[in-house]
């Protein structure tokens, strides 16, 4: 049985965890912690009793009627590091997780959280809006573990990833003590058997009286993972607590956006206030768009070419302002230009297209639409290769002849160099 518990491939696990954490939101829906707790409870997974509140007054009432005095209040923001973060404003509260001993204290903390932005190591300087808090009973852990169900590329399927070192950053554990992480492959169709789950719990060092409780949680987590088309279920920590219970103390759930058509209930939980408005707008037009901190707007087709374009810009001393995998219509191309031009930091735009299914003349049509309807004053570097390349270049040359700052190149390096120089001019 122990042969199924694989400590090998720990570096791959760490990379897989990091990749899941940094996935763009177009591919991975995240939901708030209180929503995750409710979903876990639907599957019979034990958690501390908790309830959300959307105003200071509601937080007072929740705490008053909770049935316990010792509570914890957590800001509901889709970002890690909430406990060490701080809220916006000169008198901003330090820490998005606070201990509460009375309804009045719950109301006070909620008033300092709701309606403000929480700034953590993952949010950037602007932070993310806190529109709700979660009040939960305080349970004292006797030991904390890390548990996750995720898709492991090395295995070619789902896996249970676990560590006895919970309640901390799992990437740090993978770096400092990779032997502390174990990976258990899961058969996609048949799931995780109770026998394998119990052996995993023993290996992790759960108390004998808690082995079956932990195993039951592992099995139910995979059931949720499969039935809800999740990309990741991360429980950190899963804790043995005073009194003998095993509880999921914190949860981070992600879901594959390709499954939205059959997971309407899950996707109705989406909180668009936690996403960048430009990324939300881009999604309406089928654009995969992520804002970055650079000065060169990128309009590219295909995720692979987009990544290569970002690399070549960096190699030439520039910095991309975005990741943008453009859609297959002229209207989508025009919308892409609108998004790029709306960013004040963008000083030049690099259009890099390898025409296959996406034809170069469609891109050119989108450029023409943008030129006619938008105020395009910054330099645009255009590289068009592939299907309908000749026709597209003629259209671009006609636009350039009108006096607009549009420059056409064939080579990737020379085009990237020109985009960098234009942004730095």
Description:
The chain has 425 residues and is α+β, with helices and mostly antiparallel strands. Helices cover 36% and strands 24% of the residues. The protein has 14 helices and 20 strands. It has helices at residues 10-22, 33-42, 56-64, 103-113, 170-176, 194-204, 211-227, 264-267, 277-284, 303-315, 330-341, 360-373, 389-401, 412-424; strands at residues 28-30, 50-53, 71-75, 86-87, 97-100, 117-119, 128-129, 133-137, 141-152, 157-163, 181-185, 230-241, 246-248, 251-256, 288-291, 296-300, 322-325, 348-355, 380-386, 406-408. The strands form 5 sheets. Strands 1, 9, 10, 11, 12, 13 and 14 form a 7-stranded antiparallel sheet that branches. It has a 4-stranded antiparallel sheet with strand order 2-8-3-5, sandwiched between helices. A hairpin with a 4-residue loop joins β9 (141-152) and β10 (157-163). α1 runs antiparallel to α5. The protein is elongated and about 80 Å long. The model is unreliable at 1-26 (pLDDT under 50).
Set down the secondary structure blueprint.
Blueprint: H1 10-22, E1 28-30, H2 33-42, E2 50-53, H3 56-64, E3 71-75, E4 86-87, E5 97-100, H4 103-113, E6 117-119, E7 128-129, E8 133-137, E9 141-152, E10 157-163, H5 170-176, E11 181-185, H6 194-204, H7 211-227, E12 230-241, E13 246-248, E14 251-256, H8 264-267, H9 277-284, E15 288-291, E16 296-300, H10 303-315, E17 322-325, H11 330-341, E18 348-355, H12 360-373, E19 380-386, H13 389-401, E20 406-408, H14 412-424
Parallel strand pairs: 16-18, 18-19, 19-20
Antiparallel strand pairs: 1-14, 2-8, 3-5, 3-8, 4-6, 6-7, 9-10, 9-12, 10-11, 12-13, 12-14, 15-17
